[in-house]
Amino acid sequence: MSMIHVRARLALPFVIGLSIVLQAAAADAPATAAGASGDAADTLEEVVVTGTLIRGVAPVGTNVIGVSQQELQATGATTMSQLLQDIPQFGSFNNLQYPQGGFNTQTTNRPNLRNLPGFTTSGSAATLVLVDGHRVVGMGISTTSPDADIIPPGAIERIEIVPDGGSAIYGSDAVAGVINYITKKKSDGVDFDARYGAGLQYGTFDMDLNAGHSWDHGSATISYNYEEHSAIFGADRGYVTQYPANTAGIPFPVRNLNCSPGNVQLLGTNTTYALPYTTATAVANTANQCDQGKQVSIYPEEHRYSVMAGVTEDFSDAINFDMRAFYMDRTLYQNTNGAFGGTELVAGFPGIPGLAYSPFFAAHKVTPSPFEFQTVTFAVGPNDYGVQNLLMHTWGVTPTLTAQLGHGWQLRALASYGESSTEQNTNQVDAAALANATAAGLFNPYDPASSNPQGLAAVENFATYGSSLQKLFNARLVLDGELFTLPGGAVKVAAGGEYNKETFDSRQGIIVPGTQNTGYPGLSINGTLIIPPAGPVPTVALGRNVEAAFGELDIPIFGKPNALPGLQELTFSASGRYDHYSDFGGPFDPRFGVTFKPIDWLKIRGTWGKSFVAPSLADNQQTQATDERFIPGLAFILPPAQLVASGKYPPVQPGQNTLIILGNAPNIQPQKATTESVGGDIQLPFVEGLDLHLTYWNIDYKGVIGDPPFIDQLNFWSQFGPPVIIVNPTQAQLNGVLAQATTVSGGCAPQPTCVYNILDVRKKNLGEFKISGLDFAADYSRRTDFGSVHFGLSGTYELNQEESAVVGGVYADQLAANTTRLRMRATAGAKVGSLYSEVALNHTSGYTLNPPVGTAQQQTSVSSFDVVDLFFSYAVNGQGLLKDLGLTLNVSNVFNRDPPAYLQPSLVPEQDGYTNGATVGRLVQFGIKKHF
């Protein structure tokens, strides 16, 4: 909290001083800064709406969701990713979205329209992010996609969201739809906007500074945003809890055994002995238990700043030039595992494959058997040991030249170039160094605090490292105009071509921190090699070119002034695009739309189309080679006790291992989808100000790219089977899997009986799913004697969700249990003089659980999650410094509701104990706005 206070105090004098300078520079500008909406109305024929390439028309058959700058401020969102948490069509609705980038997984805020259940967040993105209609460079390491927060919020005039397949217009990534940030092209003067927020063990501060100047034939704008917030730890929120679960061989439920002091389990029986003990004092079936989620940050600390600048100039009545440039820098810190929990297999004598010899074993031997093997669980390091540092930078520049060719024809030429860099380090204990230090007696797994300080430091001095440098060059040429006239109006056409060149340089490895460029000479202590030498982390450099051709027709059959009774408007559209990728070829994607108005107040619309998502360069097998590891007796990668008890899986036998396969599978292909929608819009003539919208949508999605989500234990074992899960494999199956490996860690004997299961959780083309639902919205606004009132309702209800975990598999119903069907937001607002107030409710419905979860108690259902927010704004309307001054107050989660409880543990302790939503808790934000 003190960090937030200090930065806020330092920022305000700087902002005020800069505002005065900019005000003086723009002294000859008009006094108002609004202007944008009026200009947009005056130049409607020049506007290209998201979802179409043709000027001056809405995309036929599609409902475009719009978010204005005023609506953005009312949500209290300080970033675009936070805004998406209030839009029901997104998977982050009523939740917390942040880059979950530990160990090089998802390192961007990735919008997910339709909450497509792509098994994991690691595959390619199915929602396309645009800025002023053009692509931007991706970011990330194991995954790559544009980040939702690249543009300063103050630079955005409006956001347009098309929740419909868009590959026929834009190419890859538009399966679920498109998000387009429309930036401000014109403003005058300086606008300052800052907010400070406080919650339980949480603080946030953000600041926007926007300046602009316009002249007769052009304008210039610049926007700056700074945002930061502190971390929230599991200990700060009571709902974060690791619930006990049954574990093979232990006659009582277990929460977590990686504790300090730790535990010993006998390999083969899993009989547990709580440390500390000596051979004479060991007590069977005792355990030290702890909750690792308490030291982990469930919401990371973050610092982010971004800049966007633009200039537009009319060289003549026919030629317009526009250039936009942006830059974003983000730093994120997240505690990933608090005091690190480790596991070591030890024996009393050396030479056993997969087991470390420990000279401390003799004092902790609990049976007379000469073949006693132990699994020792422990915790090392301070509570802030497992910290992930994520650094992200991106920038881009886009010049656009528009030429009016006469007779309604226009040529638009765009070139865009962008770069991004991502780097992450996550502290961890290295398994090889741990085994070497244990065998040398430098590390004592029974009591890590008593270890040799050099040995302990060597074990802890490792990190998972990843970095990437991405570049994107994009060029596009679009010609559009009118062909001829029909009774409904002019038939319009757009056609053009596009060229993309993208490169991806990636580095990944487990390193001694800071040695990724130089390599590491190795470390020996007392003549024993603890850390072997290692070279610099190698770079995998990949690239490809994409060439595309596209076209679109807008055909108004009937319309005013030639409308007929029962046929006020009938418009068809057809579009298509062919993409050719230099590394795998490419598809042709068509799209058709229709809009029909039988009467003035009723519009019926529909679309059908094909879309695709190309595998990103991060999905290439070269970026993550196949790594196979033998892991003994880890409960979270074995089937849940409920499924074993039901007979779906056989019991695990003492001493059996899991062989887990990590990396990228070879020959990953594009994801493909067929999308369709039909809907209606109603403006009742007898209820002025009421708008109603209803849309049925359907997506048939095949070849989804992702990692099978083995950390979601219950769903993973319920949904997947061969070849992802192979239980009790044959020797031939084992040999075939091991032959694919680049590296193999550990081992067991005798094979194949020592292997319980093979888990192939490499990123690959997985299964297929079909999902459909209803989008609904109602909006009512009315002027009153005291001002005005407004009511709004928007939401989505899933009708069907069927999933096949592997291509060609049997489809299973995903809505009968374990999935929410309804996500909805309702608002009510009133304006009284200079005061505007609004209350909002975000609702996510509950669902049943099948099978039930929990051990000490059974849970058969998950509750709904309802969050109420308040917003107030007041225009001071004073003189002097009080002129054009505004004050705002946001109260998020007014009633401080916790997300619903969930008793099933996972491999991610900070996500245990709750589901169906997340929140920072009650958050109060005070804001001040001033126009100079």
SSE inventory with pairings:
Elements: H1 2-25, H2 36-42, E1 65-68, H3 69-75, H4 80-84, E2 127-131, E3 134-135, E4 156-162, H5 167-170, E5 177-183, E6 189-199, E7 202-215, E8 218-229, E9 232-233, E10 263-266, E11 272-274, E12 297-299, E13 301-314, E14 319-335, E15 340-347, E16 356-357, E17 374-380, E18 387-406, E19 409-428, H6 431-439, H7 453-460, E20 462-486, E21 489-511, E22 523-525, E23 528-531, E24 540-558, E25 569-581, E26 588-599, E27 602-613, E28 627-632, H8 641-645, E29 657-662, E30 671-682, E31 690-702, E32 705-706, H9 713-719, E33 725-727, H10 731-738, E34 743-745, E35 755-760, E36 764-765, E37 768-783, E38 787-804, E39 812-813, E40 822-832, E41 835-844, E42 847-853, E43 859-862, E44 865-875, E45 885-892, E46 901-902, E47 913-914, E48 923-931
Parallel strand pairs: 2-5, 15-16, 28-34, 29-35
Antiparallel strand pairs: 1-4, 2-3, 4-5, 6-7, 6-48, 7-8, 8-13, 9-12, 10-11, 10-17, 13-14, 14-18, 15-17, 18-19, 19-20, 20-21, 21-24, 22-23, 24-25, 25-26, 26-27, 27-30, 28-29, 30-31, 31-37, 32-36, 33-35, 37-38, 38-39, 38-40, 40-41, 41-44, 42-43, 44-45, 45-48, 46-47
Helix pairs in contact: 6-7
Task: Describe the protein in words.
By secondary structure, this protein is mainly beta. The chain has a domain at 2-236 and 298-336 and 389-424 and 469-503 and 543-618 and 670-704 and 766-931: TonB-dependent receptor, beta-barrel domain (Maltoporin, Chain A, Beta Barrel), CATH 2.40.170.20. It has ten helices and 48 strands. The protein has a 22-stranded antiparallel beta barrel. Strands 1-4-5-2-3 form a five-stranded mixed sheet. Strand 40 and strand 41 (835-844) form a beta hairpin. Helix 6 (431-439) runs antiparallel to helix 7 (453-460). The chain starts with a helix and ends with a strand.
